[in-house]
Amino acid sequence: xxxxxxxxxxxxxxxxxxxxxxxxxxxxxxxxxxxxxxxxxxxxxxxxxxxxxxxxxxxxxxxxxxxxxxxxxxxxxxxxxxxxxxxxxxxxxxxxxxxxxxxxxxxxxxxxxxxxxxxxxxxxxxxxxxxxxxxxxxxxxxxxxxxxxxxxxxxxxxxxxxxxxxxxxxxxxxxxxxxxxxxxxxxxxxxxxxxxxxxxxxxxxxxxxxxxxxxxxxxxxxxxxxxxxxxxxxxxxxxxxxxxxxxxxxxxxxxxxxxxxxxxxxxxxxxxxxxxxxxxxxxxxxxxxxxxxxxxxxxxxxxxxxxxxxxxxxxxxxxxxxxxxxxxxxxxxxxxxxxx
Length: 340
Prior knowledge:
Blueprint: E1 16-27, H1 30-33, E2 41-47, E3 52-58, H2 66-82, H3 90-112, E4 123-129, E5 132-138, E6 142-147, E7 152-156, H4 175-178, E8 180-185, E9 189-195, H5 197-203, E10 204-205, E11 210-211, H6 214-219, H7 227-243, E12 250-260, H8 262-266, H9 270-277, H10 282-296, H11 301-308, H12 312-322, E13 326-327
Antiparallel strand pairs: 1-12, 1-13, 2-3, 3-4, 4-5, 5-8, 6-7, 6-9, 9-12, 10-11
């Protein structure tokens, strides 16, 4: 029997749920809007219950097919990150991402009858992989992190070329050398914000020594809003604020670990509950949350089935689904439930 209504457990829990969310949006600047040209920034995201990835790219203003290049690059980067092995070296990851980007750029260039350098664009990415938070930056965008103490820091500040208004692109001959990568401890960082140069000047100044307080608020959107709603807020309300300060296109990518107790999650919107728990309806969210809360309180399968009215098979199904989300006091996933 599957319960249609599950009362909240009364036991105190010893941990929280952790879900990494990714959200991103890009908007054209006045320089393009005034001539009815498209945005040349591009964004892409990917996630499952245990991992997430985001990438942003700024097409080179001098490149004839800058938009196409940026779109190809973010998709290639996210695809590599989604399929990455458990513990890649940074050199392996750097080579795999650039190799995939260049291969797809060449394919797209052939389809357009163009040269690859006509699709030149920058690249920023961030992804979770086990206990690691992987961050990369090639070009004049910025990767800004939020540490475990709630302090915003520059992880990888902008890098420009030798002369003004110059930077490095995926198609640059020195791209492999210039793609900077960092491996952070995901248990000690709460999130990473990626921004192309259009918004970077508003969020990161003095070569990363001064970070705007807005970085914290932007990442914490994903504490309250599911990714789809957060992306709508970025596009409709937040990016327009940055666009008033620049003529350039602007894009933001958010990768954030929402750490939340079951009691707190119960107060969030149904859409947020569905996004965090990977459920399709309110009953599924209610049952999965009840099982997760009892597991965190140390209950076994038989005890949970008795208390919730769910079958043992249903309890085990919800246990498997929430295993990547359940964290103990150390912030790491807890084990599977024992059966009596």
